[in-house]
Amino acid sequence: xxxxxxxxxxxxxxxxxxxxxxxxxxxxxxxxxxxxxxxxxxxxxxxxxxxxxxxxxxxxxxxxxxxxxxxxxxxxxxxxxxxxxxxxxxxxxxxxxxxxxxxxxxxxxxxxxxxxxxxxxxxxxxxxxxxxxxxxxxxxxxxxxxxxxxxxxxxxxxxxxxxxxxxxxxxxxxxxxxxxxxxxxxxxxxxxxxxxxxxxxxxxxxxxxxxxxxxxxxxxxxxxxxxxxxxxxxxxxxxxxxxxxxxxxxxxxxxxxxxxxxxxxxxxxxxxxxxxxxxxxxxxxxxxxxxxxxxxxxxxxxxxxxxxxxxxxxxxxxxxxxxxxxxxxxxxxxxxxxxxxxxxxxxxxxxxx
Length: 353
Hints:
This protein is of the alpha+beta class. The protein has helices at 9-18, 67-76, 94-97, 122-139, 158-171, 179-190, 233-240, 259-262, 267-278, 286-310, 318-322, 325-345; strands spanning 28-31, 40-45, 48-54, 87-91, 101-105, 199-201, 210-212, 219-222, 229-231.
């Protein structure tokens, strides 16, 4: 359905024509489904098609919906081993579309949501997972200095800053009603592993943020970079691997599926693929990284629930999505306690080290 409410698409059409991106000052803008954060539209004019991403209307949390950062990092990665759409312009002129926005290339490919990849053969599923792994490893090898991203975000104390930030954000939503969230807010900062490595991280690297070639198991674009930063690559990888720890009935998980029968690698095999490309510094803290990422996912879901309550949610299923926040937080606390138990079991091995 075309979305024209409170949108000055005529002003956008004039701007795009002036930039040589369309041939005439008229266009249609159709809301794209999917995504809980930034409203996204397919913009068409004649033979030209683009994707427009904008900040949501209404009051939003500080530093959320950072479309300016999305634009910057995708522009920096043009021509790299990390496939991204071409980006054309960024504007904060509210008279054009009603909110800050950027325009990028429309990629004609496949976006898959179900991580069990229904309808595919075992070989096809394995190839899709291998390609996801390859692209993430390539991302973590990006030379941030050469890409002009050395100042993209603060360097060092990544987990401490992330935990503090998501805690602040959670306090502005209904997260405080969750005993698991409250417990994680206290436990996580006290148990951060003393392992630092800094790379460009995506922050939301998952199957449905990848556009695959229409027929080949090849990623042609990585989308949704608003949570990207300079941080620990294994923390980024752990977020991507949450699906191995979450049941399919809860939130986009594969933990309860017959992975061998489906042709989907187990998590250990998947981590080995990554290790062969990039190494696994700090892998002994994997349960901590999983606990942190479940906390962060719960914080995001509580935020979605709050936007739904305020009427500012981008997706129609925001209320149902928000309901998953509490169970995700509970799962995060489970992994925190598992990490704690393992550390205590082997604490005698660290004496004198």
